[in-house]
Amino acid sequence: MTAIPLAEADQVLATLDPLVLFSDVDGTLVGRGGSLLADLDGGASLGAAEALVAARRAGLEVVLVSGRTRAQLFEACRLLGLRDAIGELGTVLLRDGKAELQWGQTPRGLGATPAEALEASGALGAVLDKFAGRIEPHAPWHQGRQGTALLRGQVQAAEVDAVLQAEGFGWAHLKDNGRLRGAYPHLGAGETHAFHLLPVGVSKAATAAAYLAERGLQAGSAAAVGDGPADLEIADAVGAMFLVANGAWAAERDTARQVVVTPSSAGNGFAEVVAALIGRLEVERSTAPER
Fold first, then answer.
1. 3-state secondary structure the chain
2. Domains of the chain: total
3. Which of 26, 99, 245, 264 could form a disulfide with 268 if both were Cys (CB 3.0 to 4.6 A apart)?
4. pLDDT for the residue 290
5. Considering the entire predicted model, what is its pTM?
6. 199, 232, 259 — which closes off a domain?
């Protein structure tokens, strides 16, 4: 299905009773340099900050869903006044400040965390060796991880997964987490992307679905917004999936899922999603029968 512009998404919004918005962080909520107060070009922007305040006032709970670590998301939640988060592409669930690891098909006994198991088993080494010169640790952000190995490179996830399967590491796979803005000419002349090596059976969608179930919420009570292919998986767990404008390219890779695209990029696009959901909440509340 082709992507739907936000201005034409009334039918999608009409299916929602939105109480939760799962939001990616980098390139979605925040702009250049990971700043809440910057757009993608580094210019000043209050769009995302004002939207967070508006969401809080309206009772729309924002839950961060990111490739970032537990520690990074814990501090981000404290700073932004948020409660819960999903980290490292679904391998870490942070609820009320407490972290729970999602192991998927990771063989136990190889390490205290899935990330340790990926290294100790040789799965990470196999990827770095077989694709030397095309992929490498995404330093310095690869440190302190519990669920995934964070990499950057110019590879196709499918070709890496084929090697992992052939080498006996079929329990692990590679996920594309979107384009990087920086130049990495030593990795090739093309676009460099961030990648996560993680266990099969774990995803943003699976952890988001489990989170909603624990809270007794249906898919129609949640929406999600992101800017890359890994974010689109959450569409399977929520009532509506949004991409900010700078992530519209990801919809071309996944035409099976219904996606709504905002007119603006990053934080301003996030603000447009929040405004649309708050508008829907107000309609729901105005038409709800009195008790």
1. CCCEEHHHCHHHHCCCCCCEEEECCECCCECHHHCCCECCCCCECCHHHHHHHHHHHHCCEEEEECCCCHHHHHHHHHHHCCCCEEEHHHCEEEECCEEEECCCCCCCCCCCCHHHHHHHCCHHHHHHHHCCCCEEECCCCCCCCCCCEEEEECCCHHHHHHHHHHCCCCCEEEEEEEECCCCCHHHCCCCCEEEEEEECCCCHHHHHHHHHHHCCCCHHHEEEEECCHHHHHHHHCCCEEEECHHHHHHHHHCCCCCCEECCCCHHHHHHHHHHHHHHHHHHHHHHCCCC
2. 2
3. 264
4. 63
5. 0.90
6. 199
